[in-house]
Design goal:
Family: Belongs to the flavin monoamine oxidase family.
Organism: Microbacterium yannicii
CATH architecture of the largest domain: 3-Layer(bba) Sandwich
Number of domains: 3
Strand content: 15-25%
Structural class: alpha/beta
Pfam families: Amino_oxidase
CATH topology of the largest domain: FAD/NAD(P)-binding domain
Shape: globular
CATH superfamily of the largest domain: FAD/NAD(P)-binding domain
Keywords: Oxidoreductase
InterPro entries: Amino_oxidase, FAD/NAD-bd_sf, Flavin_amine_oxidase, Flavin_MAO
Number of helices: 17
Number of strands: 22
């Protein structure tokens, strides 16, 4: 048994964990980061598949993500704009594809009017939401008791308008069926990006990428920690005692590899759905037991298709494509910086993702590429590299992109989702307000957990 003593042990070497560890170290506290995987990064993962560099996990940077942009600048990482020159493609209910420019989909004038009106209504509601305290809104209980789908259908009987409005927070972000989460959860998703309009504007939310891949953020942060990052050490037990009048409490963390760490504090910097993989001694309070049962991951397949060239550009297409009727509900030009080849990235989410995983890999690939061909033509069916990011099968993630509350859960438990329990602190993108579900939120939560511990340690 290897025994270590530190001020703080961090569980998880993603963006939140490595950020927290660096902040704590700067403040003079000793740390160790325990990571279950054999790599640093968590839900950030840049890898080479069949000779193509792919962003298997998170990848985009938007203008409102100040914490991420500060970190990129501090680490000396460069960004480049997503390719967006040319026309976008929309596939309607009749299966016909239409090229268009601008933010509004090429729908019937009446449907366009309805979408614009409801978007304006949503922007006004979102403006009243504090993303760090959505449960504090006077209508929070009411908005958390109605599903996102039911609220939209109460606004209009235009099905195409509902589908296009719904998918921005449903299929595209929370990656759950729209009847499975509340209006309040949807408003939080929009508030975390500044407005509902921001969330549906691909040119805003998917603005830039990092040269060399976004996983460099946790990798470079981990480099600064040196031997204080230990891979392949899943944490199994946390014995903890709360602070008392005569002491600060503390934790003893046991991990695979015959490792035991004694520390004053622990930060759980991983997805909330993994909290139950750890045995807590004593058990966590009943509030946490109940709360954690009301949080679940969404599910989305990120599809990477690499071609010998970005052929869609030759046809005047930007690569941006949408349809609430297609298996691949959205797709983009994801060509790497300085790469002569062309890459498309598409997304298949919630029930559609469930359904295609009931097929053989060959059938699934055929169905997905056929859907891409509805946007880009027959050439889309013949990539030189094809890969599916399936985070639902990752033992230490179990879904994507992040976790959200079920119906009524946000109003009921949101105020407690990142509150410390004695010496146990929580930090991940899943519990963020601003930057919720994004790397920006992970960095914000890593900073916050570190700041809270630094303050507590100085008392």
């Amino acid at each position: 048994m290897t025994e270590l003593t530190r001020d703080v042990v961090i569980v998880g070497a993603g963006a939140a964990g490595t950020t927290a560890a660096n902040e704590l170290k700067k403040a003079g506290l000793s740390v160790v980061v325990l990571e279950a995987r054999d790599r640093v990064g968590g839900r950030l993962w840049t890898d080479v598949i069949d000779g193509a560099m792919l962003e298997i996990g998170g990848q985009w940077v938007s203008p409102d993500q100040d914490a991420l942009k500060e970190t990129l600048a501090e680490l000396g990482l460069e960004t480049y704009s997503r390719y967006r020159e040319g026309e976008s493609v929309y596939v309607g209910a009749d299966g016909a594809s239409t090229r268009f420019t601008g933010e509004m989909f090429p729908v019937a004038p009446e449907t366009e009017r309805v979408i614009a009106e409801i978007t304006e209504r949503l922007d006004a509601m979102v403006a009243e939401i504090d993303p760090d305290r959505p449960w504090a809104h006077e209508k929070a209980a009411e908005w958390d008791a109605i599903t996102w789908d039911a609220w939209l259908r109460a606004q209009t009987d235009d099905d195409e308008a509902v589908r296009n409005l719904a998918f921005a927070t449903g299929s595209a972000m929370l990656t759950k069926p729209t009847h499975a989460f509340s209006l309040l959860q949807s408003l939080l998703m929009a508030a975390s990006a500044g407005s509902y309009s921001n969330l549906v504007d691909a040119d805003f939310i998917l603005d830039k990428r990092v040269v060399g891949g976004l996983q460099q953020v946790p990798l470079l942060l981990a480099e600064r920690l040196g031997d204080d990052v230990l891979l392949g050490h899943p944490v199994r037990t946390i014995a903890w005692s709360p602070a008392t009048g005569s002491g600060t409490g503390g934790v003893t963390v046991e991990a695979d590899g015959d490792l035991r760490v004694h520390a004053r504090y622990v930060i759980l910097a991983h997805a909330p759905v993994l909290y139950n993989r750890i045995s807590f001694v004593p058990a966590l309070p009943r509030l946490q037991h109940q709360m954690h049962q009301h949080i679940s991951m969404g599910f989305v397949i990120k599809v990477h298709a690499v071609y010998d060239r970005p052929f869609w550009r030759e046809h005047g297409l930007s690569g941006t494509a949408f349809s609430p009727y297609e298996l691949v509900h959205e797709a983009y030009d994801n060509t790497n910086h300085g790469d002569d080849r062309g890459t498309l990235v598409g997304f298949v989410s919630d029930r559609n993702a469930d359904d295609v995983f009931r097929l053989t890999p060959e059938e699934r690939r055929e169905r997905i590429l056929a859907s891409l061909s509805h946007y880009y033509g027959a050439e889309a069916e013949n990539p030189v590299v094809y890969y599916e990011s399936d985070w639902g099968s990752e033992e230490w993630t179990r879904g994507a992109y992040a976790a959200s509350f079920d119906m009524g859960g946000l109003h009921r438990y949101g105020a407690d989702v990142r509150a410390a329990v004695g010496p146990i602190h929580f930090a991940c993108s899943d519990v963020a307000g601003a930057g919720y579900q994004h790397v920006d939120g992970a960095i914000r939560m890593g900073r916050l957990a570190a700041a809270n511990i630094i303050e507590a340690a100085r008392r």
